Hints:
By secondary structure, the protein is of the alpha/beta class. The chain has two domains: 2-112 and 288-304, NAD(P)-binding Rossmann-like Domain (Rossmann fold); 115-286 and 315-333, Dihydrodipicolinate Reductase, domain 2, CATH 3.30.360.10. Helices cover 35% and strands 23% of the residues. The protein is globular.
Amino acid sequence: MIACQEHLPGWLSLPQARVLWLVEPEQKRAAKVAAQFGIPRHTPRLEDALADAEVQVVDICAPSGLHARMTRQALQAGKHVLCEKPMALSAAEAFQLVALARQGQRKLMIGHHLRFDPVALALVQALQESDRGQFHAVRAQWLRKRRLPARPGFVRRELSGGGVLLDLGVHMVDLAWWVAGCPQPVAASASLNNRLGRRGDVQGEWGSWDSRTLDVEDFAWGQLRFEGGLLVSFELSWLALQPEEEFQRVQWFGDRWGALWPAGRLFAHRRGRPWEVQLAPTHVEKPHRLVVQRFAQCVLQGEAEPVPPEQIATVTAMIEALYRSARQGNEVPVELPRS
């Protein structure tokens, strides 16, 4: 879905790019998609595409549990890599990939498309142009009512590596942290369950699943603590008992500013009175398309990745700590490699 709806149209919109290979284990599907997008070659083996010296970039849209292995293979073959989130399932893997990319002088970027969301970009720009002060708390919510993605790449842990925390939580944690200025994470606490997904009488909009074998979480709640006192809390669900079909909201609370996404509002006090700004986004380009365009630009121009992989490796460490906290039932430290 993400390849056909976002990444492939993004690459094909660039006059300086050609898509040479499609790697897909199901060859009937591969032939259909290759014909649809005019891709000359398809294969079930990543190694076939990596052996082609003409290939400069590999774009990974595989299930989450395969991201780190495929990224490593591509970097070792001397390719630049754009990969869908999550970067990896452990901080150790993520930072190893960063080191591999830096040693080989290859570009590595993870497709955190909310960093290219027009409202998020407007928020960051407005805060950078003012005295942002310090944020002390963030509340992040992404709650769906009946939208469990009932496909193996999401609901089979051997392929996905996790559930809603890896699917939606990676985005919410990163957006909350990025807008707040990326302070150093200290500790994590989380609670995960799949009580609704395992009930058997709950049905979703996006297909059916075997409630007896569902082994990933459909609900996640937690918080992260950071140096300087910032606290980020989050609520995530694929199957929330709520009125809205889907609900997204991130709210930042600070000593100079408050901010709200996706509403694009900033709050402050001026001359002793409440003051509010409604931001006007400067572009309307689809965020996923911007991911592809900006990555292509950084490869062609030799620029730094617009989403630094070191930052996303740190996000991976936060997510790993949240899963560890949920297993242990207590707050745990966020473990980062020593510099």
